[in-house]
Amino acid sequence: MRQCTPLPYAAAVRPRNDTLLRALLRQPTPYTPIWLMRQAGRYLPEYNATRSRAGSFLALAKSPDFATEVTLQPIERYPLDAAILFSDILTVPDAMGLGLFFSDGEGPRFERPVRSEADVAKLAAPDPELSLTYVLDAVRQIRRALDGRLPLIGFAGSPFTLACYMVEGGSTDDFRTVKTMLYARPDLLHRILQVNAEAVADYLNAQIAAGVDAVMIFDTWGGVLADGAFQRFSLAYLRQVIDRLLRTRDGERIPSIVFAKGGGLWLEELADLGSDALGLDWTVSLAKARARVGRRCALQGNMDPMALFGGEVAICAEVRRLLDDFGPPQRPDGGWDGHVFNLGHGLSPFTPPEAISVLVHAVHSYSRQLRALAS
Amino acid sequence: MRQCTPLPYAAAVRPRNDTLLRALLRQPTPYTPIWLMRQAGRYLPEYNATRSRAGSFLALAKSPDFATEVTLQPIERYPLDAAILFSDILTVPDAMGLGLFFSDGEGPRFERPVRSEADVAKLAAPDPELSLTYVLDAVRQIRRALDGRLPLIGFAGSPFTLACYMVEGGSTDDFRTVKTMLYARPDLLHRILQVNAEAVADYLNAQIAAGVDAVMIFDTWGGVLADGAFQRFSLAYLRQVIDRLLRTRDGERIPSIVFAKGGGLWLEELADLGSDALGLDWTVSLAKARARVGRRCALQGNMDPMALFGGEVAICAEVRRLLDDFGPPQRPDGGWDGHVFNLGHGLSPFTPPEAISVLVHAVHSYSRQLRALAS
């Protein structure tokens, strides 16, 4: 059928709403696109209903049917500008054989944490086509269901963030086990990070091949490292991942986003990674971040998720404050800087669903107004 | 007796080891002084013994005898350059009548958190001479026990950090209750912060009158705020406290230190507060912080407390890295910048006590070497 469609190939594969992709690539957009970290999740009654049917979080995440269902839920309810694959960053170490499970009230845990020299020696990057098939099937199924309507974002945890869970064996508030390894046996941690970098790159490339339109790397825990250690143990391995990423599929650019929570002091170094966009948490001023790195990367963020508890007036005020802080994306010289609206962290499960309607509408309408004023 | 002692008054009241005070005031020192946040605490077997005798943490903190005993323990064991009052930042809201208690495994809690308009209306700054007598008695007793050997540091929580506990009613991982108030009812939070600023200033001034040689304000939680909110809800009230502080006692300067954990992006604004020194967490490069604000404030910090789990070689390497990063305190123009070695956060209860011996020795000896090399 291709010879019957005179559209260039690129236009044929781009989603109809490509505002997100354009903003990530610092191209002109009629308004500021918005999506939200954890937009598919426990604050939505329809998510909780699906999760009940699935039986558990892991059953949900491991079923392409259920994952597709919950990925689509927020975009059915709100005019968001992207869907993001429903999954968990810990699927990768699970595929390495660490035995992911969820214990009540304690979050994710691993049956076999990686602590000793022998544990580390056994680690290998999994082949995502073999051991993460359920994720790639979900990507293919979601893409079919989206039918070109919106871009689909794929994601993975950063090598260091995955290592935190792999070494700690679960959540932690002081990162004592992984940091003890970092200071006492840096060679072991480097070996884990090397395997993780390979695994994350392979996994993201498999997601790209399966159909995601953009990829995001979550460095949730790099910000707990000391200056110096961050560069050696997180940034260096983010670079390896970015360097190995497929940057295009069928001639179409696949933008990448790096989000290092708590990384505001290291923006210049993060911008040097060569990803298309940087995610920002709420401690960073968008104006200052734009001045520091906005000519090299698009910026994504950065409302405090807790502002969604302030009611309609507070949400609208916060949206205006953030969009004003970034300023008109078109620069005085005519070029464009990129801004994708998001939170500075995942949505709280306690968020009132109606707050998201207010937020999305405010971002779309106020950013259109600002462009009209600036032109 | 004063006419019999020909020493100038200032020299008579200064502790014999005044290295800490000199570094805080950016005066020449023969080596880099060191003290450690939570240097009196659960990692020390002698502390645990005293705590057992006291029966509970609160009984320990509220007894001047026990508080004196545990304050002196780390300076008996290690050649530290300061003692810090053993107490808790939550004594202030406790004195406001909120009912501080400690529940097993959940940390500090308040019986009567401050949530409603009526709760807020009832708040008033306590008179420390009446309701925090036990702290001031401890200060006087510790000072007598120190007998001019070392400076004694007093401290308080910042207005915002206290408000977090007062509104949440205890520890939290998302600050949802206090941030909901911030976004939905900022007027209520401002009223709490106003009372807290007055209470903290009065409390620190009472500690100064009772004999502490320096004061530190812990803004442990300001760093969880969004840029913009930090300035309005934490920084503005830190400024009120600093502005109300007694800066001298009997003609002797009493240096102040502000520690805003996670505040590395706001160093310039923190330096504008007019405190003598800024505490830094480990995410900040000492060299970069010195370049940004070192001509206006001394810097205190900033080793990751988890580096103390890395063994002797790693501890010494980390000390050298940090002292090299700050560089020789004497500038090429002959003036001095100030550096006080510390951790970037409190000591972990799991720290091996022998690690502190290694640390203190490394800081003293390597900083002396660096000064010899630079001169």
Please report which band the strand proportion of chain A falls in: under 5%, 5-15%, 15-25%, 25-35%, 35-45% or over 45%: 5-15%
The count of β-strands of chain A is 11
Number of helical regions of chain A: 17
Under CATH, the topology of chain A can be stated as TIM Barrel
**Alpha-carbon distance between the two ends of chain A:** 41 Å
Explain this structure.
The structure is a homodimer of 375-residue chains. By secondary structure, chain A is α/β, with parallel strands linked by helices. Chain A has a single domain, classed as TIM Barrel (Alpha-Beta Barrel), CATH 3.20.20. Chain A has 17 helices and eleven strands. The first copy, chain A, has helices at residues 9-13, 19-24, 45-54, 57-62, 64-77, 91-98, 117-122, 128-131, 133-146, 159-168, 176-184, 186-210, 229-244, 267-271, 286-293, 312-326, 353-374, and strands spanning 83-84, 100-103, 107-110, 152-157, 214-219, 248-249, 252-253, 256-260, 277-279, 298-303, 339-343. A seven-stranded parallel β-sheet of chain A has the order 1-4-5-8-9-10-11. In chain A, strands 2-3 form a two-stranded antiparallel sheet. In chain A, strands 6-7 form a two-stranded antiparallel sheet. In chain A, a hairpin with a 2-residue loop joins strand 6 and strand 7. The termini of chain A are far apart. The model of chain A is unreliable at 1-12 (pLDDT under 50). The A-B interface holds A 174-176, 179-180, 182-184, 223, 225-230, 262, 264-265, 282-285, 288, 302-304, 306-307, 309-311, 314, 318, 321, 325, 344, 348, 350 and B 174-176, 179-180, 182-184, 223, 225-230, 262, 264-265, 282-285, 288, 302-304, 306-307, 309-311, 314, 318, 321, 325, 344, 348, 350.
